[in-house]
Design the sequence.
């Protein structure tokens, strides 16, 4: 196991360097620049040149990349152009909100997608299978921003059951009910995308597993169908879902961006959207690299979880 971890870490290092090169180049290829964004409307070419020198964007892109990379390796993630604070301070101020949102959304998605997938796989009724297929197609097809706005229009504007945005009531001390009514809206919208896709994977995997020989042997021994399905078949059927959940590490920021913007949720997704419009290069690069690191770590954790779910799998 230790050799496997070391090998995966060694592979991850050049992968992250290649990702950083690609992202840095793409970010700097975007039209415009931070100097044009932050300069006053009546600023002349000389003023913009001074601002570019102050921000460090007047140097060639390879030199900018080298300075950024050496700074990252030394623990200096740079200073935000927009907030004029260290990037680490800006990110860690938003990270807890996004982590809360993603954990609640993943919890809702797993709690609903697994039963939906299992029921649609083992049910003999065609209408159940058709209903599951329609639900999955709707969940995949409906745009996140539209679903979020419809939820706000219904539950916040018309019925006034949920707040229209933010993560807490201004001026109110923290309490769990206030936290719940603020997070349930964006978490439910974000979970809808996962439920639709994951239930289809669980259904497909479940259909494959229940046709295996060991499941037929378990039934032949006289075990109850509930025991056969949930104790013998379900664990192996969850392997594709574990992979999908592991790959959601990068979506900790990017996947929640639209949802956080719609619900004005002060997380890293909204910070990423604001940084894109303001050309805040240091924050953008830090957010993108965190997404890449989380994707690699999530993939590694998914591989390690395989051995726990299915002891037949050995990590070499």
Sequence:
């Amino acid at each position: 196991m230790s050799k496997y971890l070391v090998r995966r870490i060694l592979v991850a290092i050049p992968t992250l360097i290649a990702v950083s090169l690609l992202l840095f180049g793409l970010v700097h290829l975007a039209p415009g620049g931070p100097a044009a964004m932050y300069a006053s409307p009546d600023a002349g070419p000389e003023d913009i040149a001074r601002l570019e020198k102050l921000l460090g964007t007047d140097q060639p892109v390879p030199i900018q990349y080298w300075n950024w990379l050496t700074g990252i390796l030394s623990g200096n993630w740079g200073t935000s152009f927009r907030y004029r604070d260290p990037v680490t301070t800006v990110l860690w101020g938003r990270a807890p909100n996004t982590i809360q949102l993603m954990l609640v959304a993943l919890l809702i998605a797993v709690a609903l997608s697994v039963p939906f997938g299992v029921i649609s796989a083992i049910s003999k009724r065609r209408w159940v299978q058709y209903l599951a297929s329609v639900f999955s197609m709707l969940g995949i097809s409906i745009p996140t921003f539209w679903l979020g706005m419809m939820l706000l229009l219904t539950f916040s504007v018309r019925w006034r059951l949920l707040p229209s945005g933010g993560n807490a009531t201004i001026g109110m001390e923290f309490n769990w009910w206030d936290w719940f009514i603020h997070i349930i809206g964006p978490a439910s919208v974000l979970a809808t995308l996962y439920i639709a896709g994951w239930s289809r994977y669980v259904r497909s995997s479940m259909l494959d597993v229940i046709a295996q020989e060991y499941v037929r042997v378990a039934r032949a021994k006289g075990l109850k169908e509930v025991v056969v399905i949930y104790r013998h078949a379900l664990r192996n059927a969850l392997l594709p879902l574990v992979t999908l959940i592991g790959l959601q590490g990068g979506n900790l920021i990017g996947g929640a961006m639209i949802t956080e913007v719609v619900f004005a949720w002060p997380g890293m997704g909204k910070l990423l959207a604001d940084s894109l419009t303001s050309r805040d290069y240091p924050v953008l690069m830090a957010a993108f690299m965190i997404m890449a690191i989380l994707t690699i770590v999530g993939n590694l954790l998914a591989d390690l979880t395989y051995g726990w779910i299915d002891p037949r799998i050995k990590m070499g």
Summary: The chain has two domains: 2-73, 87-309. Residues 2-73 form one domain. The chain has a mean pLDDT of 85.
